Amino acid sequence: MDGSLLTLIDLPDEVLLLILKNLDNIEVLYLIIDLNKRFNKLVHDSIFTNHLTMIRCSSNGSFDRLDEQIHDRFCSQILPSIHHNIKWLDVECSSMEDVLLCTSYPNLSGLGLHNIEKNIALCLFTGEWFFDFFFNH
């Protein structure tokens, strides 16, 4: 290269997809969605939106909620813009209500709940909240 600088924007879509699909889809969505029209189209691909794991695994093996800023942006902007593509969601118990109620998920077929206590699970899956959510959304 004769002194020119190659940037991500210069790469063809196929190469960008190869790079981005090797990264964490939550981080890709958080950092790139709404960056520009081209990147927005790329990250709306089902590679990044079919299965979302909205938890972090700590070094000791426990599951933690996403950082508050990331969580808030997902609930207010990102999830509503990709809701129709989501087929599976993994969420941490303390963020479950925010994530599930921020938008509808017409194609959701799987839900992974992490750090959920037995009494909360019994309440959710036998109580009014569960049936209201799944039958009204």
TrEMBL record:
Superkingdom of source: Eukaryota
The protein, known as: F-box domain-containing protein
Domain F-box span(s) in chain numbering: 5-52
Native species: Rotaria magnacalcarata
SUPFAM superfamilies, alphabetized: F-box domain (SSF81383)
Entries under InterPro entries matching the protein: F-box-like_dom_sf, F-box_dom
